[in-house]
Amino acid sequence: MASKYYVVWAGRETGxxxxxxxxxxxxxxxxxxxxxxxxxxxxxxxAFGAGKGQSAAGSKGTSSKAKPxxxxxxxxxxxxxxxxxxxxxxxxxxxxxxxxxxxxxxxxKKGELAELWYGLYNPKGTNNTAELNALHQALLMARQYLxxxxxxHIHSDSQYAIKCISLxxxxxxxxxxxxxxxxxxxxxxxxxxxxxxxxxxxxxKLSHVAAHVGIEGNELADRxxxxxxxxxxxxxSRYQQPLDVPALLAMRAG
Length: 254
Known about the structure:
The protein is α+β, with helices and mostly antiparallel strands.
């Protein structure tokens, strides 16, 4: 169960969210953003259902009047803490598909960007393989942080990758890692990632995040996947350049 639920009535995307970094990306710098946190899912659903255009009156840091996005430097929209200690965003890229592929990852600590990772270049890869590789790397990192007693939330924009390791793999494994319709693509990485996920699932949060809607972590993971293709880095390596978010977002997108 999430520790908080965030309702966004007006932002880059509207709805109910359980991750503060994701919510922050949806409202930070958005003219006339309206949002509020709630302690329970029922309260959030009732508030959101009452009207998407409602003002989030009384919530910390909300605004009921539109202000120019460039009127002041971009800062965290409110001072609330994220619902996880560690948030990891993953993405995979392939140009074309199939073609040159690579994986990227953005890691946040307490809502602040801390690390970027890239690599696992494959000259003859696919987008699905790159997404799975990125998610696998995130799980390896998550295990280390969970062992330290920290809360970890992984965000992937690939429904395929998420379902492969957290849903479909259970049936495939029970059937001897076979499926009725033929061979299982990307079987090796699915098996490794699934076993890891299964050992962590009771403590780990894994969810889908919308792609290319301005969510910072997702956008940065995307840039890292394309940087992999350009650098042809086969190892999974930490990005060593300064974490200048505007400069990073100006890099080529996938």
